[in-house]
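Same chain as my last thread, 564 residues:
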Amino acid sequence: MNNTSGFTVSSFVIMKTFLFFLFFTLFLITGHVGDAVDTMTGITGGSIIINCVYRDETRESAKSFCKVSGRECTTMTEVKKDLWIPEERFSMIEDESRILISVFIRNLTVTDSGTYRCQAGSQTVQTMDLNVKQESCCGRSEDQTAYLGETAVIQCKYPDTYKDHGKLLFKVQNGLLESIIHTFGHSATNERFSPSENEQEHVFSVTIADVERSDAGVYFCGIENNKIIYTPLPMEIQLHVSGHVGDAVDTMTGITGGSIIINCVYRDETRESAKSFCKVSGRECTTMTEVKKDLWIPEERFSMIEGESRILISVFIRNLTVTDSGTYRCRAGSQTIQTVDFNVKQESCCGRSEDQTAYLGGTAVIQCKYPDTYKDRGKQLFKVQNGSLEPIIHTFGHSATNERFSLKENEQEHVFSVTIADVERSDAGVYFCGIENNNIIYTPLPMEIQLHVSENQEQTDVSGQSDLYIISAVCSCVILLLAVGLSLMLFKCRWKKTEDSVSSDQRNARDGDEEVNCPHYEAIQDSAQESIGLNTVYATTQLPTSPSGSDFYALAEKSHDIEH
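reply #2:
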């Protein structure tokens, strides 16, 4: 036993010495560190480890990591005790030799791109360019649940550019990122951890057998790089370990009007079984949903999907009501895999759907209210994408940033807000406010937001003003037409009245003419009658009204005098 132990120690010393000389040789071949700029690539939402090697004469100097901006270099971090500091994105540690420095950057964004320097005092030891780009495959954090004594599978996606690189899995332990397992080929084995890779799907998986409570923690998927100067970490996984599957009933809480995601983990031997989610009623269990293609089905309240491994099942329930309270089961065939008690209660703060409008290029703020019971828990924002609920941003503290999305929380008001900068059309859609839960078996979603994206607000205002002008012009035309029509009606009425008056006067005049002229008719000669007739017509045409009876009488007397 002693000989074996001695051999193990000796082997370890020889291996360590060999690696030291190998690294030192590579160091000499590549020339002085800092003579050239190293180029690094990161993925938005992912992380990266950057290694800086200092010269022996800088061992005692204060070391820092800074970002170049013009002639200045802004310090991003200095040497700390731990590499893993959850509330900080930049951290930096040095090894025992005080020569090797490791810098860790989490939740990368495009704005992190630029030139960086490792410095010893005011002296630049190493310069590097970091290029952060977007990859749809990865660059995000995920939560996963494993059960004691069962098998857990951690799946790591990576972009096509890394398909020929070796893969690693790191775990956060004692403030550091410790390498758990790695492979330069297609498989490797390390105790209970074993990796496998599907190059066509660009996924490598790590299987953990006989899960233990100590397996819980934060893991990072890593890529072996030809340049040892940096290691890309495209994905982060938070692994939670619960009791034995089916041993006890899990209790969940939901809010009326809200939604919930329920996760069920099936045993490996039930992989091929038909899976369902049912509600217990006496001795019966009524099926509420079975496995479907999409988790988001607008016309259905219950939906259920299974992961690629066919072991993890997610159930989604929308628009919760008090009657949804009860006991549910995840089943494989006729076998019960997991039992959960669900309690739905009313909360005045939330549990509703809202519509909101944002404008292209502007800033949108999604406000998520939550009850007091969730004030100490992390917050999340999900978006419906390709039939699934994808986490957009989350935080276990007070703030977090993810590209154009940033999250802040007001604990006093029980509100967390997600700000979207430079709104794009693709930002339109359905969002769910989520609560990080200590029991990963479920995720409450107290609010649902339908975000609409419209044209620029100024253009909308101009369009609105234009519409107002058109409406005003139309109204003016209608009023003018009404006024003209009314005027014509009044004019017609007045004209008719005048015509009737003239006709009446003319009739009166004729009547008067007969009464006046009758006594003198025989005394008036033909010539005088013609003269009188012409004078009468002329007078009638010139005057606004018919001549009165007295006028005709005077004219007749005059004619009578002329005759004599």
